[in-house]
Amino acid sequence: GDSVTQMEGPVTLSEEAFLTINCTYTATGYPSLFWYVQYPGEGLQLLLKATKADDKGSNKGFEATYRKETTSFHLEKGSVQVSDSAVYFCALMKTSYDKVIFGPGTSLSVIP
Amino acid sequence: DGGITQSPKYLFRKEGQNVTLSCEQNLNHDAMYWYRQDPGQGLRLIYYSQIVNDFQKGDIAEGYSVSREKKESFPLTVTSAQKNPTAFYLCASSIVFAGTRDNSPLHFGNGTRLTVT
Hints:
The complex is a heterodimer. Helix content of chain A is about 0%, strand content about 50%. In chain A, the strands form three sheets. In chain A, strands 2, 5, 6, 10, 11 and 12 form a six-stranded mixed beta sheet that branches. A four-stranded antiparallel beta sheet of chain A has the order 3-9-8-7, with no helix packed on it. Chain A has a two-stranded antiparallel ribbon with strand order 1-4. By secondary structure, chain A is an all-beta fold. Chain B is about 0% helix and about 50% strand.
């Protein structure tokens, strides 16, 4: 079946460090791919998305490129801030009628 | 502003009691979802509904029930049959694009933390 795998962490970085959170997926067809972020005590928020191969999603300095050849959607940010501390979820959706498949989440802590 | 409202934020119940969690959206979204999140865990789908008066079981529906009488509302009842009800419950909604490959992201509420003792 369809699945999403991501590094589980926790990941701890110093402020201004480079961030990569790996995400790979298994799915037939052409799913849309998403990154969501969850701050402590809150629900998830959409961070960015990509709907087809080679699309790059970007938002708030975060980027991810839909790589169909490697079935990956790695999240990157050039310089993290303390306020980026959160849990990050990679997810896929094949059609509006299908369930969203979430990865297990990666906890990020950024220290000053 | 449009959004999803979950209430209450914190809920405490005694074991053996049913409890209903509220979820209301004013985004005019077709589909609504309930997820459960345990500490350090990912999201697990409980129930979802893509149209009024219809809903489907997710991966962990046992011990839960839902209704979808209005497009805006999708309440979740945690029954006494749910063995481990203490958790963080998240409601979400999305647009359903019929006949296209467009996919709407999920919009989430801020959750209800249920504690059963």
